[in-house]
């Protein structure tokens, strides 16, 4: 249709006018939105000031702000969280992989700070402190008889690198007080608990979390194992709740060939970021097994998913937790921080392994407990998988999304006579405290024993099982231990080995009857 040219100026004028009107309306809308958002912020600030200045009673307004932040984040997802200043300090140290201190493992035994073990080659070990010592004073500060919380104790023992602290210690074995001057130093917080050789030229590496130092620790352990001629490797990610995604990606790169996809993320705008393996892999041909359970999450699932989806590794164990959300941290001036979910991650086949969280945080975290009731921890057939979330690997293996990594080889929860409460109890700190107290009664009972002699002693002695039964009864826990005697004795022996000989000896004992390890080793025979 032709337009009459004499009306063109009117049309153009009208269009311009309409554009101006629409533009002003759009500007007004943007301005109104801006004012509305700022009004909400101002409203909150005015309320806090009003309470601070006028409320009849004294109120810690910082705690009110913290509650407000917590409440806001609780409306989002389970992994968007506020971390208070005191907690953030320990979180940062844990994820950095070190802290400055004197190098001891301790706990409050009765009313005293008791040293369980000194860190090997740490300041306290070099100064001469020993397991069983009680720290009475840090400088002039009295530590015994006060039942100080752990964070207060840490603050007394931590400091700047090279700073000196004088400790007054009571040594029970000598029945006397001793003084030690100790220079604080950087103490590593290991994220790789063990890197050791098992049977059949199989290496084993246990990772407890993914911190800044995890890849370098892992690489060091893998290098030593390769020098010992390993042909296969077991990576233990059980009870590993995750950490830095980059560290899990770096470890996956050791096993995958150049340009194989490791993981990809999508943000709210749909922007996708893909991460591929490089040519640097140090173990691209040997067999790989990854151990997971219901507490393996986040970066653990990224590593397991990358190897499973690329047909590179065999996943052994039970369905993992199901965390497929990526967080970014924002720090505040008071030392606190907020971790906000900014993206979802996906395994190479396109799986999101994030489990649903629409029913709220309580139901979300309780889901892991529900797996006991549904029987999932005892039978693979009880794992609920959706056909709509079915994916295939390059070799045609079926894998599932929608809630954790489903293992290739299922291994039920290792309990005897179905007593899972005992199994979980044995993995808490209670066994460590019991063993310390038993050693504290008579350390000379183990003096001069070699490891094999120690094993014979523990196998032939029923004393510690009986003592542990009494110890548990005193805590008020009504647990029947007789039917799980072999399991209990294994954990007790392993903990004695750790405190007497070191971390690797703990795993030397605990892995001998480990159901997942034996499943792999027996299949290779």
UniProtKB/TrEMBL annotation:
Q: Which InterPro entries match?
A: ClpP/crotonase-like_dom_sf (IPR029045), PDZ (IPR001478), PDZ_sf (IPR036034), Peptidase_S41A (IPR004447), Tail-specific_protease (IPR005151)
Q: Which GO terms describe its molecular function?
A: endopeptidase activity; serine-type peptidase activity
For whether the record's keyword set contains Membrane, the answer is: yes
Q: Which Gene3D superfamilies does the record associate with it?
A: 2-enoyl-CoA Hydratase, Chain A, domain 1, 2.30.42.10, 3.30.750.44
TM ranges: 7-26
Q: Name one GO biological process term.
A: proteolysis
Any idea where the PDZ domain is?
88-136
Instruction: Name the family.
Output: Belongs to the peptidase S41A family.
This chain's protein is named PDZ domain-containing protein
Which source organism does the UniProt entry give?
Flavobacterium geliluteum
